[in-house]
Amino acid sequence: MSSGANRYTTDEMMTVAAARELRDGVLCFVGIGLPSEAANLARATHAPNCNLVYESGTIGAKPEVLPHSIGDGELAEHADSVVPIPEIFSYWLQTGRIDVGFLGAAQIDRFANINTTVIGDYGSPKVRLPGAGGAPEIAASAKEVILMLRHSRRAFVEELAFVTSVGYLDGSDARSKLRYLGAGPTVVITDLGILRPDPQTKELTLTQLHPGATAEEAREATGWELRVADEVGETDPPDEKELHTLRELREKTEAANKETQVLRELHARIGAARKR
Q: Is the pTM of this model over 0.85?
């Protein structure tokens, strides 16, 4: 995909579009993976005062490379503060102090409920996923939630194998009956476009397409009859700064990963030599 002199991939478009949803100055609870990449891109571009919070207890995290997990030392090394995990949940999240929850998912349904637990029967699953972690609490208590995942029939399903984190249950006012602090998912960003919940039914509706993507392509990649807005906008392509910053972040992360792997192999050889 290209725009003028800037060539970019669909994944880069998705990450940039997701990053743009994050406003400067917000307190954002970030999930590992795609959300972490987008959140750190936002912090490095248009939202320098965005405060990133990770489940391990880091507040104001400023990683120079993308973390492997919530326990990655990179997060603590550059954070403004590190607090106990119970404090992250009981003081920051469950009291409604978190402005935005930024999550990924393995599966999502039409009402933005997500699954990160299992594919198939719970007792004997085809695939066992990473699990819930803090996602259910983030989905329940953050003032708003941004979701990010690649668009395919395997991910956008008619019925979830397991509801890990609640979006809008079966739609309309179902979520409000649970008396959650947070308003729920406000946007879902994919590699094809952007979906937002209908104000009344809460069903996800395609409102924006990335350059080159079509509504028919999005329908074919969705496991239910996808609702499409009467007027579908087009996402602005990544600009030079966004692409440069994202690629630089990925390159730094890849270099750090290679360095870590070399050190692990060296330590393994030293350990083996000592046992001889």
A: yes
Residues involved in catalysis: 55
* Structure tokens given for 37: 């990449």
The pLDDT value recorded for residue 264 is 64
Which CATH number does 2-275 carry?
A: 3.40.1080.10
* Contact between 50 and 40 (Cβ < 8 Å): no
Rounded average pLDDT over 128-151: 96
Tell me how far apart the alpha carbons of residues 60 and 261 are, in angstroms, rounded to a whole number: 28
